[in-house]
């Protein structure tokens, strides 16, 4: 009955830009890679861990049984990690690599400089092996690994040795904290475009379940001109609506929908669901 | 305007800052006791007999047959317009002007129009016109019919007012075409049946909109002197003083006050939570809330009039004697609660009626501070008018020695209503 003005998908251009940049980084990384690609290994061919003669195999391991393979600092593989909370479940992890290429089709082969895969660790415990720059880390996996917030990514060669520089594995960390949509300090590569939207001034998390709204409807003071982000999860298909601003979003059952807008008009506005007609909260904009 | 928010009026006034409310409450208290000590000690208002006649030409124009016919035609056209839009238009209050015409232009618009020009709805009421036309066809005298029982007074109007405010504030989907058509059909059926039985005088007692408009018109500077039928300019106090003390007057005023109060607190998140989580269901819970608000207003009034009777001893039925003094307080509530709705949704509805598709609401006339000031001023001014009206009535009714003591319960009642009205603007 009421018209819907859907918000244009602002996320798509950002993702495209990131993909292009990542691809560019990969291309440049590959061309800058100094190792000579002398052999090619078919997938599944088995090799000893100490296979290949790239770099220098150290006796120390990475803490989980994989020996380190030291290479010169110059031209060595490098990685940075960025995480951001997924709107639905878990985290999106982005690995930005330099002098490195993901080579899932030759895993298990000999170590070639600048090639291989990445591994994720949560508080030092192995979490997953990653064959690309983006990885979705579900909450269930975080829970299954015993929880924690310290996410680390390391780069590994095809023979499962860990790339290392100056005796330390090539690694980067980020922190899985709800508010830190930004990469952990020091891990963000400078010049990397920010893939997140500007941080909202007000974030409201609301759950509707069995016709009950939690937290119970209240008033939220919002400064005029501030950004408001509503994150609403309903247990049935519904529609979210912000009166006055006339912002609407679909609420698929059981999934969190996010609606972000700028509160540029003063007044008292109601946020409600249209199907079930429940008031979720009132925004007091002044 | 929680219920209306589903259809009309998507922006609410900001809650009042306590500073404004305290300032208002303090002024109200101060004025009340000042009035007690300083105002006249012999009644000054002469009600119906007061007023300065308007120029004869104006009166001739106002009373001219073409004017009256034009007004009737206008009312009938507007009524048809609304019904046709409800029947044929889209069932979307943002595209169909009919819901806005009923809830904003008629219900809220009657307030300023009646205040300026008097009881206009009598002249425009399409149901009256339909009744008149039917009587002409049947060659009957429209005024003819069984006399209404005197005890009935304004009670049917009070019931009608309660029904309409229920529709506006409680009904699940007040702005939907089905709901409105159902209400309008029922309203028309009851009114026309009553008028067929009792003659056109029925509307004066039973049409909620006529009685509502008539009560507010008591505060209009324009009035008609019953003795000689002259249109006069008069002080609103005299108009108020001339309010007939019909049975049901108290009930009507209590419905006006109680429903507007309910409109205020039904906005607060705590009440919405109560309604949303009530095991009775939302509509039942909200209905109880509305009835409780009216009952609370009425109980306070009954307690007050009991106290007046105890103190004065002489007045046997103080209940209706002071009801007129509550009209300005109800008006203050109405202005405070509906000003923004009227100035934003009123023009939108008119634009829609002229064919605009979902026009944007106009920029607000007043900033947040302006609206808050207006709200407090309306409530405090209503309070002051009410206090003065009640003072004059009590010096007339009470023996001189008891006039001050006799109006104390009234003062307390009015302060309660006013502080209550202000606190409803804070929540």
UniProtKB/TrEMBL annotation, chain A:
The keyword Protein biosynthesis does not apply. Residues 55-64 have a biased composition (Low complexity). Residues 35-64, 176-201 are annotated as: Disordered. Keywords: Signal. It comes from the Bacteria. Residues 1-32 form the signal peptide. This is Secreted protein.
From TrEMBL, chain B:
The keyword Transmembrane helix applies. The chain crosses the membrane at residues 20-42, 69-88, 100-121, 148-167, 288-310, 322-343, 371-391, 403-426. Keywords: Membrane, Transmembrane, Transmembrane helix. This is Uncharacterized protein. It comes from Streptomyces californicus.
């Amino acid at each position: 009955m009421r018209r819907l003005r859907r918000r244009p998908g602002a996320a798509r251009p950002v993702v495209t830009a990131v993909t292009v940049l990542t691809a560019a980084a990969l291309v440049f990384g590959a061309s800058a890679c100094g190792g000579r690609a002398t052999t090619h290994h078919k997938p599944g061919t088995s090799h000893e861990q100490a296979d290949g003669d790239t770099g220098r195999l150290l006796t120390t391991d990475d803490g989980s049984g994989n020996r380190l393979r030291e290479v010169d600092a110059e031209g060595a593989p490098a990685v940075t990690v960025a995480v951001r909370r997924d709107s639905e479940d878990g985290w999106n992890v982005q690995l930005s690599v330099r002098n490195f290429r993901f080579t899932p089709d030759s895993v298990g082969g000999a170590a070639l400089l600048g090639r291989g895969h990445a591994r994720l660790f949560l508080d030092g415990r192995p979490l997953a092996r990653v064959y690309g720059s983006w990885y979705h880390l579900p909450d269930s996996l975080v829970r299954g690994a015993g929880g924690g917030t310290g996410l680390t990514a390391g780069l590994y060669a095809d023979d499962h040795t860990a790339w290392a520089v100056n005796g330390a594995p090539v690694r980067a960390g980020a922190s899985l904290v709800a508010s830190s949509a930004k990469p952990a300090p020091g891990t963000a590569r400078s010049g990397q475009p920010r893939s997140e939207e500007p941080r909202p001034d007000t974030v409201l998390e609301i759950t509707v379940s069995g016709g009950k709204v939690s937290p119970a409807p209240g008033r939220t003071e919002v400064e005029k001109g501030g950004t408001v982000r509503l994150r609403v999860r309903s247990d049935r298909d519904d529609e979210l609506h912000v009166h006055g601003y006339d912002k609407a979003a679909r609420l698929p059952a059981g999934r969190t929908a996010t609606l972000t807008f700028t509160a540029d008009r003063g007044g008292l506005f109601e946020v409600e669901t249209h199907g079930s007609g429940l008031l979720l909260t009132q925004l007091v904009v002044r | 305007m929680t219920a209306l928010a589903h259809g009309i009026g998507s922006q609410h006034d900001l809650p009042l800052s306590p500073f404004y409310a305290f300032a208002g409450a303090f002024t109200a208290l101060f004025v009340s006791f000042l009035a007690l000590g300083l105002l006249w000690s012999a009644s000054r208002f002469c009600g119906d007999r007061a007023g300065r006649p308007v120029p004869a030409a104006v009166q001739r124009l106002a009373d001219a047959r073409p004017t009256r016919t034009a007004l009737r035609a206008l009312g009938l056209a507007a009524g048809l317009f609304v019904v046709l839009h409800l029947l044929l238009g889209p069932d979307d209050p943002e595209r169909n002007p009919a819901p806005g015409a009923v809830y904003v232009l008629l219900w809220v618009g009657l307030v300023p129009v009646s205040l300026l020009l008097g009881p206009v709805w009598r002249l425009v009421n399409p149901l009256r016109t339909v009744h008149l036309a039917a009587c002409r066809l049947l060659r009957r005298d429209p005024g003819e019919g069984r006399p209404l029982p005197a005890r009935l007074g304004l009670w049917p109007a009070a019931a009608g007012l309660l029904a309409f405010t229920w529709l506006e504030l409680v009904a699940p989907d007040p702005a939907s075409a089905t709901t409105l058509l159902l209400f309008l059909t029922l309203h028309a059926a009851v009114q026309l049946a009553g008028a067929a039985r009792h003659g056109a005088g029925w509307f004066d007692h039973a049409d909620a909109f006529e009685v509502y408009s008539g009560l507010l018109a008591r505060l209009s500077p324009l009035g008609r002197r019953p003795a000689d039928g002259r249109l006069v300019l008069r002080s609103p106090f005299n108009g108020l003083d001339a309010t007939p003390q019909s049975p049901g007057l108290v009930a009507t005023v209590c419905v006006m006050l109680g429903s507007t109060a309910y409109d205020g607190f039904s906005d607060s998140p705590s009440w919405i939570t109560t309604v949303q989580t009530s095991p009775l269901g939302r509509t039942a819970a909200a209905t109880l809330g509305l009835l409780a608000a009216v009952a609370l207003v009425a109980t306070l009034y009954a307690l007050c009039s009991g106290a007046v009777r105890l103190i004065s001893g002489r007045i046997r039925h103080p209940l209706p004697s002071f009801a007129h003094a509550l009209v300005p307080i109800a008006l203050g509530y109405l202005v405070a609660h509906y000003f923004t709705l009227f100035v934003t949704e009123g023009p939108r509805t008119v634009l829609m009626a002229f064919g605009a598709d979902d026009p944007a609401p106009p920029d607000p006339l007043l900033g947040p501070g302006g609206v808050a000031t207006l709200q407090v001023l309306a409530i405090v001014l209503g309070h002051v008018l009410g206090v003065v009206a009640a003072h004059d009535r009590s010096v007339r009714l009470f023996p001189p020695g008891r006039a001050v003591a006799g109006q104390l319960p009234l003062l307390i009642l009015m302060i309660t209503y006013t502080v209550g009205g202000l606190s409803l603007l804070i929540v």
